[in-house]
Structure formats: C-alpha cells, structure tokens
Design brief:
318 residues, mainly beta, 2 domains, 9-stranded mixed beta sheet, globular, disordered C terminus
Length: 318
C-alpha cells in the first residue's frame, strides 16, 4: 500500500502480494484507519480505504517492507515499530538518512533468548484459552500488518533486551465474519544472544507521525466480496515463478495463447477453443512476449531481468 508517500508491503518470495481496497465503513475491520500527521498543523490525513493483501498459499514465510518519504528525513530521525496481528517484539528500525528510508523485517526478535521468529501465514487458532498471547488491540490488530512511525531524537543508551515469548494469538470466534481464516505463525531460528545492545534513538513524541495498516486475507475471501478480480494487476513486477505457480490468480485454462520470443508459439489453449496466434517479426534485441487472457485482454510481458517481468496492458482485440 502507498499512502501519502509512506509505503507498506507484504513480500512472499521477495515479491509484493497483490492488493485491493474497500471503502472504510463498508465492512468491519480490526484496526482504525491508516493516517499521516501533518507536523505543522497537527491534523491527521486519514486513508478512506481499507487496504487488503491477497494471500494465495498457507504455510509460506513472508517479509514486511516499509518505506518513508525521503523528505521526512530532513526533519530529523524516525523510528518505526512493526506489529503483526497486534503482536510486537519491542524493537524498532532507525531511519536517519536517505540510505535508510526503507527497511525489511523477516520476523520478530528475542535477543535475550537468541531467537528470531520468522513470519509465516498459517491457519487461525480460534478461542481465547490461557497460554496464548491475546493481541493488544490498542496497536495493530488481528489479520493486519501495522507500522507506527515516530519522530525521534538522538539518545545513546545501553539497553537490556526484554525476554518476550512470541506465540500466535488465538482469535475470538465472534470475529469469524471478518475473514480471519489465516493468521501469522512463527518459525523459530537461533541467533546470537545479546545481554545488552546499543540504542541510539528515542521517540520525541507519543503521537505517531504516521500509521499504516495492511490487512491480509485469503484470495478466495477477497474475491467473494468482489474486491479482487482474477486478472493480473497492471504495471507491477512479478517473478516468473509467481506466474507459473498461479500466484496471480490466473488459471492455466484461462490462458489461450502465449507468443514466445522470436515468434515461437507456446500453446496453452484448452481443447475446442479456436487458435488465434498473432505472428510478428522478432530480432535478436526483442524482449517482448504476448499473453492473451480469456476475456480478450492482451498484455505485454517485458523481461526486465532474468527472473522478473512487468505487465503492460495492450489494446483489447476482438
């Protein structure tokens, strides 16, 4: 999601998940709206849309990528705190220069125990039994990745890490109508134990400079609410493996024709459909392929690197 030049994405295989939006108030959510604070007027600019990321597979690890506008650095350093399903590990990322406006989080950290808890999509645990952490609803929310950005000041401290045991939260069955069929679980890995660590920043205000909420739901749930169409998003970059693994909600039977490089036709056409392959001239420098979706839209695939492509919509042909 991109709001007022603040960016938040969920990455699977280092590629962002497809996103869609729904006007706030259309349905219930587990967080408040995303917003950005005007530092001069102290007024909030709120996002009028709830933004969803479409999850196609369970059991896969994911990362969180977020980015601040470059001009905010000129006003001083910024601290960013990440929440997943309302859980937090009491760590922050420091953004102090133009080279550090972006950060990627793979999991939560417990330096006291020497553990990293890598994020993974999993089935939801229902109920509120003892022994499970119930998310603090004052920050973030179930089924959402949230990032809180604070204006910071330089303050050198030697800090003892907190011993926080991260576990998946159980969800009240009363929230089943929110589409919370998947949650975040954690894969534990060992990292070096740190008895103390160096902290260079402290929040300059209790008021966040910006708050972003990116909710995640299954692709089927988003399609059932007509928020997601089974066609690729235009002008975004995907890996070839994502296309092959059907992560773009394109079914094999939906693909009629694929024109390969140098005019070699790769036919993936269901039996009984009239073949209509457009031939064109190719030379050694040509790097474009054509793919036709069953509804008649053509897309150009431009190979940007060896393993990445981007989609550009072509004129509909009838």
């Amino acid at each position: 999601m991109l709001f007022s030049n603040y960016q938040l994405e969920i990455l699977v295989n280092d590629q962002p998940l497809e996103e869609c939006e729904e006007p706030i108030g259309t349905g219930r959510t587990t967080t408040g709206p995303s917003y950005v604070l005007n530092e001069f007027s102290q007024r909030r600019l709120e996002n009028k849309q709830t933004v969803y990321a479409a999850v196609t597979k369970l059991g896969v690890q994911f990362k969180i990528r977020y980015k601040i506008p470059y001009h905010t650095i000129f006003g001083g350093p910024i601290m960013a705190f990440v929440y997943v399903d309302g859980l937090h590990d009491n760590t922050y990322s420091a953004h102090t220069s133009l080279s550090s406006i972006q950060n990627i989080r793979e999991g939560f950290y417990n330096y006291a125990r020497g553990k990293i808890y890598n994020f993974k999509f999993d089935v939801t645990l229902w109920g509120n039994d003892e022994g499970y952490i119930i998310p603090n609803t004052r920050a973030g929310g179930q089924g959402a990745v949230s990032v809180y950005f604070y204006r910071a000041m330089h303050l050198h401290q030697i800090v003892k890490p907190r011993d926080i045991n991260i576990k998946s939260a159980k969800v009240s069955e009363g929230r089943a109508d929110l589409g919370l069929k998947l949650s975040t679980s954690f894969n534990e890995e060992t990292i070096p134990i740190q008895q103390v660590y160096e902290s260079l920043l402290a929040p300059a205000s209790l008021q966040p400079l910006a708050v972003l909420h990116l909710h995640y739901r299954t692709t089927s749930w988003l399609m059932s609410r007509n928020l997601l169409r089974p066609v690729p998003i235009i002008n975004r970059t995907y890996t070839l493996s994502e296309i092959r693994n059907n992560n773009l909600a394109i079914k094999t039977e939906d693909v009629k024709n694929v024109i390969g490089k140098k005019g070699k036709a790769k036919e993936q056409e269901p039996r009984g459909i009239k073949r209509r392959i457009e031939q064109r001239g190719f030379d050694e420098s040509d790097t474009e392929d054509f793919i036709k979706i069953v509804d008649g839209d053509y897309f150009t695939i431009k190979y940007e690197t060896e393993d990445q492509v981007s989609f550009e919509q072509k004129k509909r042909r009838r």
